[in-house]
């Protein structure tokens, strides 16, 4: 019997981010190998859970496979599902029941951070600067929305976005009153709650963070420079942006964003690696959102930052699994 650490890399999921997740899992599998790990990509799609390599279905009683007649149960889960059912916190409770540790935040924290409005309300108590916003439920929207009142409170332009969704699906920048209702209608295609958020004019940044041996490690900062008006799906995954890592900012600004990242990570009781996004307005970093299962392609921001920190991707992914196993112990 092999002494390798068995890792299930969870991929796929049920949201529009599925295609991104499969790419992330492939990168993790590429680097999480060798004498130390027996890693398998497990594709999750609705009720169908299977080994991506063999096509064999998972036994959900204990999350096991039976390759070659030998039972295989993972020692740890590597989280690479962006969106449902992992980034929204749904599946983590299942692994908690089985006692299998995982590399991301628990279900409560993941569910909280997937809800953009609730995350902002939680962090208000910690004096984190952020944009003003209005949350629209579908029921309230059906009763009618006073667009003039929304604009009086938030001004123009505004961003309209699904409240609990990722990868900028459903997001539109609204510059005129006439564009607001179509943008809200579009966002409701992705979620039952929609957030209308005042635009923050400034430079955009991302900052990764994780625990290593129980200590918070904040990565070098990345400036995100979209070739379009904002960092949408095309900018994130199809090359319509450039990223500068480490970001060209003053030591004072670097200290500010890193301290804010560590503060948010602790305030929300995060675990695993997380990416926090900001807009620099004047000389102050304002929170955009917290990503508990960020992209992991070789061109993605977190891998760029890990490399700039001095790690190889082998080391980064190894540390993520090691930390998950340490938490179990």
Question: Secondary-structure map with pairings?
Answer:
Blueprint: E1 5-12, H1 18-31, E2 37-45, E3 48-51, E4 76-79, H2 92-98, H3 107-114, H4 116-123, E5 133-137, H5 138-142, H6 147-154, E6 158-162, E7 172-174, H7 177-187, E8 193-198, E9 203-212, E10 215-226, H8 233-237, E11 241-244, H9 251-267, E12 274-281, E13 284-291, H10 301-308, H11 313-328
Parallel strand pairs: 1-2, 1-4
Antiparallel strand pairs: 2-3, 5-8, 6-7, 6-8, 9-10, 9-12, 10-11, 12-13
Describe, in plain words, how this protein is organized in 3D.
By secondary structure, the chain is of the alpha+beta class. The chain is about 35% helix and about 25% strand. The chain is built from eleven helices and 13 strands. The strands form three sheets. A five-stranded antiparallel β-sheet has the order 11-10-9-12-13, with helices on both faces. A four-stranded mixed β-sheet has the order 3-2-1-4. It has a four-stranded antiparallel β-sheet with strand order 5-8-6-7. It starts with a strand and ends with a helix. The model has no long low-confidence stretch (mean pLDDT about 90).
